[in-house]
Amino acid sequence: MTAVVAEHGLDGLLDATGGHPFVRWEVTDELAATWWGAADAVAFQRTRKAVRRTVNVLGGDDGVTALLDHLPEIAATVSPDRRAFSVSVPQHLEPHLRERYRVMDGGDWEWFHTTIAPDEHPSHERVVVIDDVARADEVRAFLRAQSPTADTEPGCGERWFAVEDADGSLSAVAAWGTTRAGAPHLSSVAVDTRLRGQGLGRAIVGAVTRLAVAETGVCTLGMYSHNAVARGLYLSLGYDRLCAWSSRPVVIDR
Length: 254
Description:
CATH superfamily of the largest domain: Gcn5-related N-acetyltransferase (GNAT)
Structural class: alpha+beta
Largest sheet: 13 strands, mixed
Shape: elongated
CATH topology of the largest domain: Aminopeptidase
Strand content: 25-35%
Number of strands: 13
CATH architecture of the largest domain: 3-Layer(aba) Sandwich
Helix content: 25-40%
Number of domains: 2
Oligomer: single chain
CATH class of the largest domain: Alpha Beta
Number of helices: 8
């Protein structure tokens, strides 16, 4: 049986994962106060915008399986007062999670990372900074119509960019937020459905990524796994797809 050991500290977690970029940019010292290791896998705490903490399990299959078998002990630290808490596992191991526990519906998503700026392109000149507070209603309406699953709202502190039509209306938008550890994080990328196929998504993602890498040396983003078009775009702009997660609320019987 693979042993599961509770560990402490971000430095140790980074060492255990070979400095994995997801850990580097999504986990803070506070979140890494306690984490768990098994063989070549780790389980660690994470949160982005929500107050409640979640658990991500990363590494080799045997170690991940051992950590999933120990979720009740992990839950006792992460969410001692709740019967259900969110767990993110590599997508191909989601069936094991479902076999072992009562699992509710969740989402499948992927995490990307780059430290290399895309090539400069004339289309980048069309990308402008917008005042998302003054134009909050307009941005919300655009996202509802063009990207209903977008999970970043205007007016919450992100930097917003757009491609505008000749009349000043929105043709494409994207938000630049930050991960828990301070890396730029691109979200709510949306293009007017009537204008898709004209390179607007490539223009806005390429321009914002170039700016983020120039300012900080890195850019990250996440996407829902059903969006094959977006995946192809991000890969073509130099992003590496480093994680494919299944996130599920898991009921823990205590």
